[in-house]
Design a protein that fits this description.
- Strand 4, helix 6 and strand 5 form a beta-alpha-beta unit.
- This protein is globular.
- By secondary structure, the protein is α/β, with parallel strands linked by helices.
- The model has no long low-confidence stretch (mean pLDDT about 85).
- The chain has twelve helices and eight strands.
- It has an eight-stranded mixed sheet, sandwiched between helices.
């Protein structure tokens, strides 16, 4: 969710006048600003703002990026993403640095409810819920663009970033690249997590009981479907194994029901390990009930929103309403307080 009217000087991270590329906070702020630029460039298009009236350019120019090219949706002709290219203000200033600025950043906006984008974006939101977002032309265009940039610059020089629906696109594209052996540095803000709404349950014992029962059911169903599919087709490499070395940065807010499920998802995995049910959870965590049913019917089975490993960053600054909890501006707020947790999937 992007601010409809605020420009960079009023609402942007103008406090960050010098970027230390070794500083994880600075990298987060830059990534979030570039995502906001992807929102603003589409708003500029819809509102016919050009030249000095355009609000988008400061969101990337402030950090010495320039527009390389726009990603255009072939259904509604909207700009859903941007490829940025970094232009250093000083020559060879990062030769001795382990962490350098990326040469390219591919950033995806989320849902815009303006008339020209509402229908297409809301349909894509529904496809996230129904686990069919992988079938969309927007994802195909995004993945092709990322592959082209990686082919040109190398995986270590490319970042991915997205917010909300754009995080879903970025997550799937990032998974695809990681499976090909190109894990990209990835920043996903308020990424959608599709699950039963149990995060609002206050009673921890009840909440944990529901999660454990869900894991047992999923593990059992998954084992049956997996055994049947192995009898009918050759054994394939487990995608979780391929993805386990990729650690996307996930930024979530507990007050945002769209993304807060990631908190419970990773906490539950840890708890299952602690109570000795790790093997059950390793099988259950790879699937949703919907994806298991899809697999049984011979369709794509992997839920788009689950990841084996991640660096989960939880905003601990209170949000007064959903708009703030789901908004992009929280991620460059200089008073941002958070908890960062590293989760790594173990094969054993």
């Amino acid at each position: 969710m992007s601010s409809a009217t605020a420009n960079f000087s009023m609402a942007g991270p103008s406090h960050l006048t010098a970027v230390d590329w070794k500083n994880s906070h600075h990298r987060r702020v830059v990534a979030a600003s570039l995502v906001e630029g992807a929102y603003k460039i589409e708003r500029d298009r819809q509102e016919s703002r050009h030249g000095s009236q355009a609000q988008a350019p400061p969101w990337w120019e402030f950090f010495h990026f320039q527009l390389n090219h726009k990603l255009i949706d072939n259904v509604d002709q909207s700009i859903f993403g941007v490829v940025y290219e970094y232009k250093s203000p000083t020559r060879n200033s990062f030769n001795n640095s382990d962490l350098k600025p990326p040469k390219f950043v591919v950033a995806f906006r989320g849902t815009l409810t303006q008339p020209e984008t509402r229908s297409r974006d809301l349909k894509l939101d529904f496809q996230c819920i129904s686990n069919t977002i992988h079938e969309t032309s927007r994802l195909l265009l995004a993945t092709q663009s990322i592959q082209n940039v990686v082919s040109s610059a190398g995986a270590s020089s490319v970042w991915l970033a997205g917010h909300s629906l754009g995080s879903a696109i970025g997550l799937l594209a990032g998974k695809h690249m990681a499976k090909l052996g190109f894990p990209l540095e990835t920043y996903l803000f308020n990424p959608p997590f599709i699950s039963a709404p149990i995060e609002g349950i206050k009673e921890e014992r009840l909440k944990n009981g529901i999660r454990i029962a869900n894991s047992v059911v999923k593990a059992g169903l998954s084992a049956v479907v997996k055994r049947r599919n192995h009898q009918n087709s050759p054994r394939k490499t487990d995608s979780f194994d391929l993805l386990s070395a990729w650690f996307p940065f996930l930024f979530v807010n507990p007050s945002d029901h769209i993304c807060s499920g990631y908190i419970g998802y990773f906490e539950h995995r840890k708890k299952m390990e602690e109570i000795g049910a790790g093997k059950i959870e390793k099988l259950a965590t790879k699937s949703s009930v919907e994806s298991i049913v899809s697999c049984a019917l011979g369709r794509v089975s992997e839920p788009y929103d689950v990841v084996p490993s991640a660096i989960l960053n939880i905003n601990q600054t209170p949000s007064p309403d959903f708009r703030r909890a789901h908004g992009t501006e929280q991620w460059w707020n200089p008073n941002f307080h958070y908890r960062s947790l590293v989760y790594q999937f173990s094969h054993s």
